[in-house]
Amino acid sequence: MRLLPPHGSRIDRGTSIAFSFEGRRYTGFDGDTVASALAANDVILLGRSFKYHRPRGILTMTGDDANTFVTIDSTPNLLADVVPIREGMNVMGQHYSGSLIGDNGRWIERIAKFLPVGFYYRALFRPRGIWPLWEKLVRRMAGLGRVSLDAKHGYYDKQYLFADTVVIGGGAAGLSAALAAAERGDETVLVERQPVLGGSLNHARFDAERMRGIDTARSLVAQALVHPKIRVMTDATCTGWFADNYLPILQGNRMFKLRATDVVVATGALEQPAVFRNNDLPGIMFGSAAQRLIRLYGVRPGIRAVVATANEDGYGVALDLLDAGVDVAAIVDISARSGMGPLARAASEKGIEIVSGGALREALPTEGGLSVGAVMVADNAGQDRLIECDLLCLSVGWAPSSALPAHAGAPVLYDDSWHGFTVRETPPGMRVAGAVNGVWDLDAALEDGAGGGDIPATPSPNHHWPIFPHPDGKEFVDFDEDLTIADIRNAVADGFEDIELVKRFSTVGMGPSQGRQTASNAVRLTQEANGGLLADARGSTNRPPAFPETLGALAGRNFHPVRVSAMHERHLEAGASMLIAGAWLRPACYGGAANIEAEVNAVRGNVAMMDVSTLGGLEVRGPDAAEFLNRIYTMSYLKQPVGRSRYVLMCNDLGTIVDDGVACRLADDHFYVTATTGNADGVYREMLFRNVQWRLDVDIGNVTAAYSAVSLAGPKSRQVLERVCDDLDLSAEGFPYMGVREGTVAGIPARLLRVGFVGELGWEIHVPSSMGEALWDALMEAGAEDGIRPFGVEAQRILRLEKGHIIIGQDSDALTHPHEVDMGWALGKRKPYFNGARGIEMQMKQPMTRRLAGFVLPEDTAALPEESHLVLRDGVIAGRITSIVRSPTLGRPIGLAFVPPDMGEPDGRLAIKGPRGRLIEATVVALPFYDPDNKRQAL
Amino acid sequence: MKLMPCPLNGPRNISEFACAGEVAELRDPADCDDTSWAEHVIFSNNTAGVVREWWFHTPTSYWFIAERNTVTDEILRTYPAGEVFKARFDYAAAKDEGGK
Amino acid sequence: MTDPAQHTRRSPVYRKLVAAGATFREAADGAVAATVPGAPRPLGLADLSVLPRLGYKGPGALAALATVGVPVPEANNTALAMPGGGLVARLADSEALLLGDPTGTGDPLAAYGALHGAGCYAMPRRDSHAWFTLAGDRAADCLAKLCGVDLRPHRFADGAIAQTSLARMNGILIRDDRGGALAYHILADSASAPYLWDCLIDAMAEYDGGPVGLDDLASFASAE
What pLDDT, in 10s, does the model give residues A199-208? Predict the structure, then answer.
């Protein structure tokens, strides 16, 4: 039932909002949460529990428990007690079969005694192979919500935020802390989970007259909202603490990544349940939850209430219930306190019956079992009394909301005199203030927030042992996982004595509420069962996230840089299909795979061009440039003539080959070195790393993106190039194989390299990347009359394999040294040192275990083996294929394979285990497959 | 996310950096037998305590040295590599050949 | 009005500006977007990639620049205005980057294009890096979506440089305010420039930002 103002500070009664729950239509007000709007309509059953399908309703009204999980418009696991209602939203309860009210899954509770904690470890895995059968049943019965496979992508992003001071929690202590920091001149961010600032000031009772919290909030909030140094973030959740005060703050669809010099944690405290039989029935909620319903949402939480309390807060709850027109049948004070505070006196004066020194026996459900109907208590004489009620408020103790200090490494330990956890010490750059710091008085909390030094100790609000075992059980310690007192005791009895082990075995605190309502009682029961001390006992380790995070929030905008050459659009226009090579997109082939053979043939018989801009480019300059290359690469560069290029092969210290390319000597002290696509940054990094140690007089620059390059290849490439290059002698004598020249192509300044990865007459033409598209256009135009066509990576892979050139990383692995790929010729013999030289030498003291061999297959081989298919000897694995293609030029399949050295001799036979395990016989041949005398590239 | 105080760029998210392990002195393989060279190349001390480590700031391709406590993950000091690698290093036979 | 594709030198993102309906004019040896429909905007992204810039690197680079009268900043990661327009950015003890006039008029770098001396080596920064300018009061907030450096105006002063990660790319940010408005030069891998452009346009939408031309950028200078 809805109450009249001033109750309901958060709702706007002028704006009605209609929504549906379980197919029925309800209305609430703007500002209502799903749970408050339903409670206003007297709907208190929100969902079913995880294991036993027990009916559940409101517990905290702060989104700190899992009882209120609902599915809204196909998004599962939303918290009904904090999600605001929206017009037309469709809300469904979760975790039931059939209907929420008549859940067909309730039978599971009747076999509860056969389902002790850990039962699935013991029962469901024997006999072997039985688990998949059980899994189907368990998966259907368990699990939270249902993921919609049609869920639409949302727009989520992230944004960095910086502050001198961030205050987490906008209650009394947090407001005070933010104002104090801002007054000092700090740029301050104040983060509040709820839609409004004020925390418990908005709903708790600090005085008999009720107005103190409201007046304090009004004043502090007004100051904070207008302070120029304070940025207020409401509906914003800090989900964790990471090193150096790095805090994720979720607000809407954005994750702020906040970095602060100082963090003040003013997250308050979490009310804790009493453990007694049927303590999970709908209608049993924390006193603070009832106060929130009354004060914030103007909802009368029940008709006839019992308040079980161990502190002054409970009396404040009773007074609020009276103000809301609820009949308070009794206050059951389970503490053994002496004396009364002002709220207790006021409650007493109002004539509420107070059962002092009482104990809780059990809650009893209404007929139908869907909500609380009465509570059985014992008075201080031990006499049982049954008190009828539809609302049972629990105010028996609090735990600090200590997730963030715990993430930061602060010890959070049980304090025997406080009867609960306390945050002991925080790391530099963090402090705790207010209730999370165990400060239980409004004036003291304000002072603590402002950083006011010694705060006088206040009496503990915690009952030392709010646990009431019942012979018939069902006293829930953990509502998420339906764990009872017996479950915790059994876990300890099974030998899991430490709280961390109890947690893992029993799953206590592992559910969605992450122990926020369980940690205190779980530690009490564990220590009792294992005979340990409660003093300084620790809870299980608290790790981020402190609150649920959606995957969308974690993913954000999902930045994935893509590199494209200056000619990229031309490839797309020519119908290229692109493949990913490292961070680059490269044309695989043009106009479909059927054209690959034509692309190969164009290179072999005519003229074709390929975008090779993705090759790494490094400038190595300085008096020690040649000496530097001599150390980095395996060949010798000291005497390399200017105007010539030379192969470069890079090894690591083990002697494994890691990269290759060519070094072009442009001047005595200047080399332009290429690196493989995707590895340029790694080669650059390695070069710099070596030279901060060697300190040679050389400068290394990465110019990969500064150059676009085209490989122009084929017997007619010279005549095409001659049409656009008039300042260089392109004849075989004037510009020989492995020559390097600087000139112009189509008026564009260019570096021309006569190299032959594909084994034909050809040039690599390197130009400034801003002119790469113009170069492409000029060459296509110049070659038009000869029928030039572009070729892609797929054709290049065939062409290079025909020439027997390896691709490092494909035809080599993390252990391949140069001799294994027959590259002993590339090792400088008279050099004092190069990276990997000693590693290669040491490996060559051992017998060779494998070598890369070329092989051919019969022309009519239908289904080709693939890369990594195995080479067998006598049925045992002897090697593997590294590359294989159908060669248009040779008219048969060719490939490379690692094989034992004795199997790699020409004319040897290899048994290859091909597709579907079929054995295929290959013949070993000498490399290269094509043009062994290298005449074509030297034309 | 941890902050790394880069000698060139100041404090930055540690995701901008790559760690390349412990700093070892340069050795000339000519001065080592196979075993000691293999140990030099492959082994690291894996000290529990303060170690000198190579770090690389990716956006600037800048190598530097950090002293970090591997137990507490506290970074005590960072400095340019030149504080440790002060002079040109040559390999024995290179001196014999007289460089170029 | 000129067509950027008629010039030999083209920006890696010229197609993005063509698609946005930009009007181009000649600048240096290429074409820049002079104005884009929708401008002026509270937050604008302009492409200056075809404009001149120079890089020098090596142990003698800063000394060589000082010798020819370039005002080399005292500290790394700071930039100074050059006489005649443009900026000189000191990236390290051994590296500097010279940006030409961001309005695309004149060539203040012409005199420094061929420096070489002991330990001073040219770097082709006009090709290795794309050059964007992001201008507007919310520019720092916008960049905070791509970049983890504290760019709050009182922490990252005019002339400050951050060499950092931008949308997971390496990039250089140089604060160079326009009139009263925050403005940053962004220099990043030219091969990823179309990707970065899209990331920035996406991040700007919240602040009513979008592509602008070089002449539109001038409105920030005259706003005060």
Answer: 999 999 999 9
Residue type for A424, please?
A: R
Helix (H, G, I), strand (E, B) or coil at A135: helix
Within a domain: residue A639? no
Q: Which CATH number applies to C53-124?
A: 3.30.70
Residue C224 pLDDT exceeds 60: no
Q: How many CB atoms lie under 10 A from the CB of residue A157? A: 18
Boundaries of every domain in chain C: 4-50+127-222, 53-124
State the pLDDT at residue A114. Answer: 66
d(CA A398, CA A437): 12
**Radius of gyration of chain C from Cα atoms?**
16
Residues 6+ apart with CB under 8 A from A698: A620, A621, A622, A623, A624, A625, A627, A628, A691
Q: How many domains does chain B have?
A: 1
Report d(CA B49, CA A735) in Å as an integer. 60
Q: Do A125 and A131 meet the contact criterion of CB atoms below 8 Å apart?
A: yes
**Bridge partner residues of A675 (DSSP):** A616
**What is the per-residue DSSP string for A193-228?**
SSSSS-GGGGTS--STTSHHHHHHHHHHHHHHHH-T
In sequence order, what are the residues at sequence separation of 6 or more whose Cβ sits closer than 8 angstroms to the Cβ of residue A565? Answer: A584, A611, A613, A614, A708, A769, A772, C191
Same-domain pairing of A284 and A360: yes
> Which one of A838, A843, A844 makes the best mutation probe of the B interface by having the most chain B beta carbons within 10 Å?
A838
User: Which of B8, B25, B41, B96 should we substitute to test contact with A (largest number of A Cβ atoms within 10 Å)?
Assistant: B41
Residue A486 carries which side chain, given as an amino acid letter? Answer: A
CA-to-CA dists, residue A89 to A85, A86, A92, A793, angstroms: 7, 6, 10, 52
Confidence of residue A75 (pLDDT cuts 50, 70, 90): confident
Say yes or no: ipTM exceeds 0.90.
yes
Question: Can you give the length of chain B in residues?
Answer: 100
Q: Residue A542 sits in a domain of what CATH number?
A: 1.10.10
pLDDT of the residue at A724: 97
| Cα–Cα distance for residue pair A816/A257, rounded to 1 Å | 44
> Is any Cβ of chain C less than 8 angstroms from the Cβ of A703?
yes
Domain boundaries, position B70: 3-85
Note the pLDDT of residue A558.
83
**CB–CB of A562 and C192 under 8 A?**
yes
For chain A, first and last CA: distance in Å?
Answer: 95
Torsion angle, CA of A746/A736/A637/A810, rounded to 10 degrees?
A: 80
Q: Kindly list the residues from chain C whose CB atom is less than 8 angstroms away from the CB atom of residue B16.
A: 148, 164-165
Flag whether B54 is in a domain: yes
Across the range A801-819, mean pLDDT stands at: 96
Structural domain including A489 reads: 476-552
Averaged pLDDT for residues A26-49: 96
**Collapsing DSSP states into helix, strand and coil, what is residue B26?**
coil
Q: What is the pLDDT of residues A433-466, one digit of tens each?
A: 999 999 999 999 999 999 977 888 888 999 999 9
Nearest-Å Rg of the Cα atoms of chain A is: 38
C165 vs B16: CB contact, 8 Å cut-off?
A: yes
* Positions of E strands within A534-656: 576-581, 584-590, 608-611, 616-621, 645-651
Residue A396 DSSP label: S
Where do we find the tokens 């030999």? C8
Token readout for A57 is 């309703």
CATH number of the domain that A356 lies in? 3.50.50.60
Q: Which of C103, C136, C118 is nearest to C208 (CA)?
A: C136
Task: Write down the H helix ranges in A118-270.
Answer: 119-123, 131-141, 172-183, 211-226
Confidence of residue B98 (pLDDT cuts 50, 70, 90): very low
Work out how many CB contacts closer than 8 A connect A with C.
121
Domain CATH code at residue B75: 3.30.2270.10
